[in-house]
Amino acid sequence: MDIMLLGHWGAGLRNPRSKKKKRADGCGDGAGSPTAIESRFAEARSRLGPHRQQLIRAIVDHCEETCFLSSRELAKRYDVDAATVVRTVQALGYKGFGDFADDLRQHLMTRITPYTALKAATRERRSVADHVDHSLDKALDNLNLLRSNLDRSLVVELARLIHRSKRILVVGVDFAASLSYYFAYGLTTLGFDAEAPVGSEGNLQHKVKGLTTRDLLIGISFGQCIRVTVEAVQRARKQGVMTFGITDSDTTPIARYCERHLIAGVVSPSFLNSYVAPMALINSIHVACAHLDPKRSLTQFKPTNKEYLSGARWYREPKGSPGDAGRTS
Description:
By secondary structure, the protein is α/β, with parallel strands linked by helices. It has 2 domains: 11-125, no CATH class; 147-301, Rossmann fold (3-Layer(aba) Sandwich). 52% of the residues lie in helices and 6% in strands. The chain contains 16 helices and 5 strands. A 5-stranded parallel β-sheet has the order 2-1-3-4-5, sandwiched between helices. Strand 1, helix 10 and strand 2 form a beta-alpha-beta unit. Helix 9 (152-164) packs across helix 14. The longest helix is centred in the middle third of the chain and has 22 residues, at 128-149. Mean pLDDT is 85; it is low at 1-26.
């Protein structure tokens, strides 16, 4: 199991230690706008019996501990049959448990903080090495989902947009700044006028303001999405600039406000998002850009060929140094 089970809650599925303030619809903590799973619960609530309502509340209110569990594991946690869990999920309008689990993870992404994520992880009975393995397992899961679900035609479409654009502005802040820098730097090496703005929010606003209808803005953010990234997308669209997003769900603000978007999961059992899948997605976009016009790409890289083979780019041990002992003269 991915999150340590805290034991069964007893009759009525109530957690006596929970003092969380409930939303008006009886689900969640009132932070932000309703998620997909909260909206489904509010709409279906009148059709659900008390026991099913309590089961959904219990699962959703403690999503940091339940979102990685299977229907069988949830049934064991709450002392019900696995069939009861599945039927309750279907009563919310989901075709199967997998769709419910996807929305539950997205709900978690909009509610969890680094503190609560780390706190939940510290409750697990794992060694430090086990936590490391767990994080690697989740990163691999994200990567496998990307490979299975990626719309290759949309990757090619983005590559074509990049080729047609005069300038490309890649916007990602906070931890996503590392992704935006890597994305823009890769495009620059391919000969595109790409930039990942750094510095103040005002600097970003000025960069977006300078875009025209011949340019492209790529926004990268996940979960609730960083405000300045979403606002950059909104501002660019008002100016007639084409916008493309990289995010982790079809329901995020980046997905809603960008004209097109690609999805890469960032699910992690730790206090930080896992960026393995987004990095792999960005790399695939670089590959598409290179092979869309291979002659152009080869022309761009040819002047650097000698530098890569024998130039001063690489570190060399001075002759006579201990590190030079194994080298031939």
